[in-house]
Amino acid sequence: MKEMDIHPWLIRMSQGDEEAFQIVYQMTRDHAYRFIYYLVPNKQDVEDVMSEVYLELLRSANNYFPGQNFRAWFNGLIIRQVRNWKRKGWRRFRIWDRLKRVSSAESDRAAIEQFAALEDQLELLPIVSALPLHLKEVIVLRYYQDHSLEEIALLLQIPIGTVKSRHHRALKRLRHQYQDKESAKGANEYVY
């Protein structure tokens, strides 16, 4: 990754040139992968963090100035994305832990199951896809993009009460659909 070689490509990339992005990606991907691999505790997250790094690189290419050391600037970007990734994981862990400690009533158990379902994005994706668009937007912004309900209201330009109502309805639908899926899966296990 040579500093002099990358600067013109960064300028073109910041102007929307897709070929320039591909060249910058080719020049930096091995370094980024190795660095992320060492920083991320769960190795299955490396590819996801890589995606986050390159999305952030696209967003912040204008913040790189020619006098800066590109490698140091890029490493700082990688570190910030790894920290963000860890923070998201830690937040999920804390919520999960809090739900487990508080749970005693059946409704609390349902909340724990609901959260576990939201964490398992691969299994949940088809269920989320089946939601109407206005409910899907809230779920994706809340659980996949980590926006607060207030931020969602601003992004969608709707009242906070509407966001809360949609959030509640979406979670209720997801819970029912997930439970239906699990009970169907359980029923199939006993078929010979």
Automatic annotation (TrEMBL):
UniProt keyword annotation of Lipid metabolism present: no
CDD domains in the cross-refs = Sigma70_r4
Name of the protein this chain belongs to: Sigma-70 family RNA polymerase sigma factor
UniProt-listed SUPFAM superfamilies: Sigma2 domain of RNA polymerase sigma factors, Sigma3 and sigma4 domains of RNA polymerase sigma factors
Supply the InterPro entries for this chain: RNA_pol_sigma-70-like, RNA_pol_sigma-70_dom, RNA_pol_sigma70_r2, RNA_pol_sigma70_r4, RNA_pol_sigma_r2, RNA_pol_sigma_r3/r4-like, WH-like_DNA-bd_sf
Keywords for the protein's UniProt record, in alphabetical order: DNA-binding, Sigma factor, Transcription, Transcription regulation
Q: Which family does it belong to?
A: Belongs to the sigma-70 factor family. ECF subfamily.
Can the keyword Transmembrane helix be found in this entry's annotation? Answer: no
Boundaries of every RNA polymerase sigma-70 region domain copy: 25-92, 134-176
